[in-house]
Amino acid sequence: MQSRILVIDDDAVACEFLQEALSREGYDVVTYTSALEALGQDLSRYDLLMSDIRMPGMDGLQLLGEVQKNWPNLPVILMTAYGSLETTMEAISLGAWDYISKPFSPDDCRAIVKKVLEVRELREKRLNLQPEESAGPKFIGSSATMVDFYKQIARVADSPASVLIEGESGTGKELTARSLHNMSSRRTKQFVVVHCGAIPDNLLESELFGYEKGSFTGADHQHIGLLESAQGGTIFLDEITEMSTALQGKLLRFMQNGEVRRIGGHEVRYVAVRVLAAANKNIDEEVRQNRFRLDLLYRFIVRLRIPSLREHKEDIPLLIEAMLKKFGYPGVRISVEAMELLMAYEWPGNVRELENILQQTLLLSPFVVILPENLPQRFQRQQESRENGGLMDMTPLEEAEKNKILQILQETSWNQSKAAQILGIDRKTLRLKIRRYGLLDGKIPGINL
Ligand SMILES: Nc1ncnc2c1ncn2[C@@H]1O[C@H](COP(=O)(O)OP(=O)(O)OP(=O)(O)O)[C@@H](O)[C@H]1O
Ligand SMILES: [Mg+2]
Question: Among 2, 33, 208, 215, which residue has the least CB neighbours within 10 Å?
Fold first, then answer.
């Protein structure tokens, strides 16, 4: 059957463009130039809604709110005119399924529509689907890298699929697991965390599967395992690579058919628990070394990789701002020079390291402004090496390019998609150049002194 798409954009030309692009693909398209007008009808007859964000009267986010309230299963794609990532983030956390940045080509638009309709179809097939309430993740960061990651989270959150979360230490693996649980219809049920690396293997087995009284010395009462007690909820197996291969085998049987047999027991019980796991080791390498079972790896339907902090350094100022508030120092400011050092650092310990450094610095520095000398020792060394000729030699052409890029970025208030458009290069190239010329180093949105 033909899918019906509702398009809302205050710009009649944009409506026409979408009508043309989508009906060519065989969709049945209806357009409105006002959100209020469109809301006057029963939207349940549509399969998809595409809406502009900035519109007079009711804007796209308000519209999204109304749609969530009245037609929670209607997928919404928002069109962002100025690629404003913060609005986009908000939209995603409010329940938008996806977004597309203007200007886009007919092909871009058809691709995103096709993808969303496919996901919708998959969802419709699932029974007892609870309308999604958006208990959005408490992630900080509005970089394109992180927005992409949030979208992946949102897509798999309310599915029974087991998820393997991969990421360096301190990137937010536990945070991701909690978000997946909180954004799923299991959120009212238990979320159980098991730190596989911290518990000896035999103990881990009895913790997970439980035991019957008398099954081993010291088992003087029956013990219900974590898998059983998480019935209907989510279990998060942190550092799953630390589990012995024998126990991995037992976990595999559980993941295949929900079978749980307590140690020393004969009865087999079936429990429905969603399994999430995290690994900060390279799990494919663990498989090659025969330390992790390939058949168990295959039981993880989805693999989510969290970007390391150095892949989205542009979020550092925002993260710091949020952390200062969280730690109770909302008035503290980071000096330009200190921020430069923080931005230049590689962050092997990721967000957790940033948190630690900030806490340490706040405790040791009595001032309202944090200066380079207040930062831990390793930042001082970095500063020296930079002063000893760390700066790159540039040709006059490169110099001119750098200045032009900086000027456009300033004119667009650092809106990278807009700047890239004006400069006639793609966003990826722009990001590369920003990094190459160190343009972000002196830029501290909101925290500049
Ligand atoms: N994007 C983010 N926004 C806000 N806070 C974050 C983000 N990523 C991580 N954190 C915070 O950083 C800390 C570390 O996160 P978490 O414990 O989830 O990381 P992890 O990957 O499990 O680390 P480890 O490998 O050390 O166990 C937590 O305090 C978490 O709230
Ligand atoms: Mg962790």
Answer: 2
The pick from 142, 148, 171, 283 for probing ligand 1's pocket by mutation, whose C-beta has the most ligand atoms within 8 angstroms, reads 171
**Is residue 447 situated within a structural domain?**
no
CA distances to 146, 196, 347, 421 from 434, rounded to whole Å, are 18, 41, 19, 15
Q: Which residues contact 128 (CB under 8 A, 6 or more apart)?
A: none
**Does a structural domain hold residue 393?**
yes
Q: What is the dihedral of CA 408, 411, 414, 419, to 10 degrees?
A: -40
- Cβ(312) – ligand 1 distance below 6 Å: no
Q: Are residues 56 and 196 both part of a single domain?
A: no
Q: Which residues, including other chains, have CB under 8 Å from residue 74's CB and lie 6 or more apart?
A: 43, 44, 46, 47, 48, 49, 67
Q: What is the pLDDT of residues 280-327, one digit of tens each?
A: 899 999 999 999 999 999 999 899 999 999 999 999 999 998 898 888
**Residue at 401 is within a domain:** yes
On whether the CB atoms of residues 148 and 243 are closer than 8 A, the answer is no
Residues 46 and 160 grouped into a single domain: no
Transcribe 190-250 into DSSP letters.
-EEEEEGGGS-HHHHHHHHHEE-TTSSTT--S-EE-HHHHTTTSEEEEETGGGS-HHHHHH
Do 118 and 172 lie in a common domain?
no
Q: Which of 235, 255, 240 is nearest to 191 (CA)?
A: 235
User: Alpha carbon of 112 to those of 104, 115, 127: distances in Å?
Assistant: 11, 5, 25
Does the beta carbon of 173 lie inside 6 Å of ligand 1?
Answer: yes
Q: Tell me the CATH number at 236.
A: 3.40.50.300
Give residue-wise pLDDT tens across range 350-364. 999 999 999 888 887
Contact 280 CB / ligand 1 (< 6 Å): yes
